Structures are given as structure tokens and as C-alpha cells.
Amino acid sequence: MKCQRLVGLGAGGHAAVIIETLQAAGHVEIIGLLAPASGDVLGIPIIGDDNILVTLQDRGIDGVFLGVGMMKSPAARKRLVDKATHHQLEIVGAVHPTAFIAPSVTIGRAPQVLAGAVIQSRARLGDHVLVNTGAIIEHDCRLGDFSHVATGAHLAGGVTVGEGAFIGAGAVLIQGVTVGANAVIGAGAVVIHDVYPGTTVVGVPARPLPQNSTSRTKCPKDEDCYALSSIGTPSTFEEISE
Ligand SMILES: CC(C)(COP(=O)(O)OP(=O)(O)OC[C@H]1O[C@@H](n2cnc3c(N)ncnc32)[C@H](O)[C@@H]1OP(=O)(O)O)[C@@H](O)C(=O)NCCC(=O)NCCS
């Protein structure tokens, strides 16, 4: 099998996890990382920022991978995909060899399925979905494009997760619930009812976070703040790199 020459987008904790996931899966040579910084991650050098995306094809790079995680918004990941696609670069997924994906599962483009994750029968995943370390997606779940199921979250059978939604670490969603697009489920929440699009819910059982929380409106990680920063600026990468 041909060894793929790849470049990673981002240089934080998630980039480190994806580097070692790709290396465990084999047949890759990771040439460098793009980030507005210098240095290296696990010995992989940062070779520039996203302004050099345009040069990668000429350098014999086969594709790029997303090395940025997602805390509350998929906006930065979406922008990276858009920009790489604009430069005709393939976005490469990463599936750890210890992840279990049942044969009847269907998955879209460039999934990231990390160590110990389980995706059970007839689940359907969209494009650029991130199923983080040890997460469990039970039978017949549906995950929309750019959704992220964080570390150790458990989705019971037949759960639907809308595009861009984020399921926090250790959250539990009972069978059949629907989480709307771009909703956020807090870490440790137990979701027993459907969640409206764009809503943040926390707690056991999960309830909406009050909209008037001052800390929320000031949070630099909110989507509006992402929208203010162009791709590849320090704010884009630093806010979402874990
Ligand atoms: C839900 C979440 C997104 C809210 O973030 P935020 O908008 O910045 O909210 P704040 O931290 O300002 O907290 C607002 C209020 O919600 C409470 N709260 C926040 N997260 C909570 C959670 N997971 N469970 C219960 N209560 C929570 C806070 O205590 C605070 O309550 P208060 O106003 O009574 O003091 C965030 O706390 C969270 O759980 N993120 C998930 C992180 C995660 O899973 N990372 C894994 C990456 S793989």
C-alpha cells in the first residue's frame, strides 16, 4: 500500500492525538503541521501557517488532516475543510485500530474515530464527524456532519445528533432522543428529552443553560468570536486546540 504524505492543520493536543492515531493505523508519513507558531508536536515540525496550504500540492503532499478539536462550535473545523478543499487538498480521516466499527455502519468523508471508540450496527455518520476516545455510539444512531461526540460520551440506540452538535465528555443520551443542529451537551449531562437546535444543556437530567449567564456571553470560544477571526490566525487555532 502506498504511504500517504500528510500535513496536519493545528498543533495542539488534538493534533498530537491524531498524529499518533494515524501512525498506529500505518501507511502515513506526516511531513509537518500548519499553525501560527513555531516548534514541533511529537517531533513533527510546524512548517508554516495556513497561508502555505496553496503550496502543498506542489510539495507532493497527498492530503491534510484536521488537528484541531472542537469545544463548542464546529466553525473553525468547517473553515479549515473549506480552505483545504479550495486548494484541491484531500481531507484525510483517522481511525484508530482499537476502535470498533460494526460492518453495517455507514460513514461519510474523513471521520476521526479515536482509540477505544465503539460504533454499533446500522449507525449512520455524516462527513467530518469526530468520535473521540472511548465514546460509544449505539445501534441506529445518526450523527450529522461535523458533529463531535467527546471522550467517553455514551449514545444509546437510535439517538440522532444534528449537524455541528457537540456532545460533551461523559454525557449519556438515552435511546431515541434527538439533539438539534449546533446544540451543546455539557460534560456529564444525562439527556432524557430532545434538545432544540443551538441550545446548551447541562446536568442530570439535562436542562437548558440560562441564556443570561454573563460568563457565557463573554466566552471567547463562542461561535461569534470564531466568525471574527480569519482562518489560521492565532485566535482560530488557539481557542480550539485542546
Ligand atoms: C456546557 C459548557 C459548554 C458550558 O460552557 P460555558 O458556556 O462556558 O459555561 P460556564 O462555564 O460559564 O458555566 C455556566 C454555568 O453552567 C454551569 N455548568 C457549566 N458546565 C456544566 C456542566 N457540564 N454540568 C453542569 N453545570 C455546568 C456552571 O457551573 C455555571 O453555573 P453558574 O452560572 O450557576 O455558576 C461546558 O461547561 C462543558 O461542559 N463543556 C464540555 C467540555 C468537554 O466535554 N470537553 C471534552 C473535549 S473532548
Please, could you describe this protein's structure?
- By secondary structure, the protein is α/β, with parallel strands linked by helices.
- The protein folds into two domains: 4-92, Rossmann fold (3-Layer(aba) Sandwich), CATH 3.40.50; 95-231, Hexapeptide repeat proteins (UDP N-Acetylglucosamine Acyltransferase, domain 1, 3 Solenoid), CATH 2.160.10.
- 18% of the residues lie in helices and 27% in strands.
- The protein has five helices and 25 strands.
- The strands form four sheets. An eight-stranded mixed β-sheet has the order 7-10-13-16-19-22-24-25.
- Strand 24 (200-202) and strand 25 form a beta hairpin.
- The longest helix has 13 residues, at 13-25.
- The protein starts with a strand and ends with a helix.
- The model is unreliable at 214-242 (pLDDT under 50).
Index terms:
single chain, 242 residues, alpha/beta, Rossmann fold, UDP N-Acetylglucosamine Acyltransferase, domain 1, 2 domains, 8-stranded mixed β-sheet, 6-stranded mixed β-sheet, disordered C terminus, binds coenzyme A
CATH-defined topology of the largest domain: UDP N-Acetylglucosamine Acyltransferase, domain 1
Mean pLDDT across every amino acid position: 87
Number of domains: 2
Which percent band covers the strand fraction? 25-35%
Fraction of residues in H or I helices: 10-25%
Number of helical segments? 5
Order of helices and strands: EHEEEEHEEEEEEEEEEEEEEEEEEEEHHH
Number of strands: 25
